[in-house]
Design a protein that fits this description.
The complex is a heterodimer of chains A (about 180) and B (about 280). Chain A has helices at about 5-15, 25-155, 165-175. With about 180 residues, chain A is mostly helical. In chain B, strand 1 (about 35) and strand 2 (about 40) form a beta hairpin. The chains are: A mainly alpha (about 180), B mainly alpha (about 280). Chains A and B meet through helix 1 and helix 2 of A and helix 1, helix 2, strand 4, helix 3 and helix 4 of B.
Chain lengths: ~180, ~280
Amino acid sequence: MPAFLNIAFFALLSGGEKGGLLDVNPGLIIWTVVTFIILLFILKKMAWKPILGSLNERENFIKDSLEKAEKAQQEALKLLEENKTNLAKAEEESQKIIAQGRDYAEKLKSQIIEESKIQGKKMVEAASSEIERKNREAFERLKDQIADIAVNAAEKIIRESLDKEKQKSIVDKFIDQLPKN
Amino acid sequence: MVLDTIQEVHDSLNVAAEKGEDTSWILHHILDSKEIFGLFTLPEIHLFGIDLTITNHVVFMWLAMIILGIIFSKVSRSYKKSLVPKGLTNLMEIFIIFVRDDIVKPTIGKGYEKFLPYLLTVFFFILTCNFLGLIPGGATATSNISVTATLATISFVVIQAGGIMKNGFFGYFKGLMPHGLPTWLLPIMFVVEVLGLFTKPFALAIRLFANMSAGHIVILALLGLIFILKTYFVIPVSIGFALFIYLLEILVALIQAYIFTMLSSLFIGMAVHQDH
């Protein structure tokens, strides 16, 4: 048996001059009760109540905060989803609007071109008819002038031999026989 | 066999004593005394025929009370400032939440809040006393059977009061008996169960006392080897083992505070909820 155990046993069993380990001291018991009860009351009032209260408060606060955060997250997700659908709708709408605009522009363009073509043709036609009319007029006038000049010339040339009436009828006949242009 | 061993020990110790090996110095360090720190003697007080002297252990209990008072007044004040703990508050909160969530809540269950202040106080008081004993020059109040017996008695009172308050006086004692027992067994069982009520705190007292004194005795005995064997070769062995035991005692100080609180809480739970 190790020596230190011997000493331990001895200490436990025999004891010194002041008594053994298992001696009960009534004074100490009273002091223990007094000390413990005082400590219990002090700590209960000063420490346990506020500390446990704060712990509970904090736990509730954390729980509430977590719940709130979860709710907020769900709401945010919902909003995000909504936003996405809205965005998609808006995109579709805008595409539609753009397509419509393009169609309209195309139609307008072709219409304008058509109209301008028609107008141009009309203008050309008007111009050519005008030119023809002017031509004819000029030709008519030229014909008259030529006739007059020819008559005058013929009158001057053959004043003596022929009278005026006869001559004119002859010249007219001659002019009529000329080609139209 | 055991008797033989004890006889042997006695004989060898008697031989040692004859050679002038006195071991009473160990007890001097373990037992309560009227000296404090070995420096001065406390005055004796006698009241109503009881020795009410403020002994070493009383001083250390008061020291524990003062330390706990200071620490927890600080902690509870820090909660008023903000709900976010830090530093000392954080450390204490770990202990408080440990006691609340790992000891009291699972063992008592519903209605545990009523017993929480008592169990927290017991836990911190025993813990502080245990640690004060580990400080060189300190004394372990919890290694005194009078102190542990008193603490166990207070636990006993709390257990019985809790049980009686919840179940009513007669209901409590009726609930002690297991269900479906033959009638003729009832008187015997009643005696057994009532005895059982007393063995629980008795075990609490002895366990705490024995654990807290044993470590100290072993350390002192290991160091005493140096002086008994009177050789230098034993010094490293003694110091090494003593250090090991010392570290073990830190663990024991924590464990015993935990066990005392745990068992008290368990017994309270058994007394309050008798149907389980």
